Every structure is written in C-alpha cells, then in structure tokens.
Amino acid sequence: MSNQAASPAATYTLSAATRARFDKETAKYPAEQRQSAVMACLSIVQQEEGWVSGAAETAIAEYLGMAPIAVREVTTFYNMYNQRPVGKFKLNVCTNLPCQLRDGQRALEHVLQKLGIEDGGTTPDGLFTVAKCECLGACADAPVALVNDRQMVSYMSNERLDALLDTLKAAAK
Ligand code: FES
Description:
Strand content: 5-15%
CATH topology of the largest domain: Glutaredoxin
Oligomer: single chain
Strand order of the largest sheet: 2-1-3-4
Bound molecules: FE2/S2 (inorganic) cluster
Helix content: 40-55%
CATH superfamily of the largest domain: Glutaredoxin
C-alpha cells in the first residue's frame, strides 16, 4: 500500500487501472445503484494516493454519476478517509470510553510525546501521522490502535508502542 505523504493535488486523473478497480466494485450492485460503491471507490483512491483530495472526490462523483457534494459528505462523515496528506504510517489510537478505562489516553499521549507531534500531526520526516479515533470494535483488547487503516494492534502498553514504532521505522528503510 502506498500511503506516502504527498503534496496537495489540484488535479486527479482516473487511471485505467483505478477505473478497472472501480468497475469491479460497481459490478457488485445493480446498475441503478452503482453509487453504493462510493465508499469502496474512496478506499481505493486512498490506498493508491494516501489520501482523498477534492479533485479525486469529483472524479469519483463523475464516475458514479452523483453530485460531488454527496461524495464529500461520505468522505467527511467517516474518519478513516484522509482529507489531507498523511505520513507513510498513520496510527489511530482509540480513546473511546472502554479504551480510556484501560489507558487509551496514556497510549495516545505516549506516542505523541515519543514522536514530538500533536494529535493529528505528522512527523517532519513524513513517516508518522498520529490521531485519536473512535471505537475500533476491539474494546476487549484495549488499548488498541490501527495502523494504516488495516492492521489492528492490541494491548498497547508503552513498551509495545515503542516496539511498534521501531518496527515501522525499520520497515520504512
Ligand atoms: S473503545 Fe477502543 S476499541 Fe472500542
């Protein structure tokens, strides 16, 4: 997955390969309900670009035959869509109540302090973006974090968080 920090894109062109991926998603729905694939299309763009720009939203809207504002509503409703460039590794640390009761806030603050950034910030080297998030559906494993929207990490003590950061840094080399 390419989750590289990128400069804000003023334009977005739907490549043949991306269009083919979109086609695969819309094929799952009746033709008159192709707009149901909007979340899948947004996820594909994010996988490929690292974030979803306004230009990409417009391209998705044109592809699905819906108003750009309707795509925007989806992008802004779900916090898994990046509305600006993020670091190579995006860490979301859950701070909802069950995780809070088991040190979710401590886990978030530990990572932020270790990386020297604020909540929602990106390290100067473009490697990490860290932000708190809502419940990830793994409360029993609290405190939990999610790496690049895909990999759940559980029972995040300070030691485990340090090890995770070290592993990701090594993976980036
Ligand atoms: S509250 Fe953190 S995973 Fe549910």
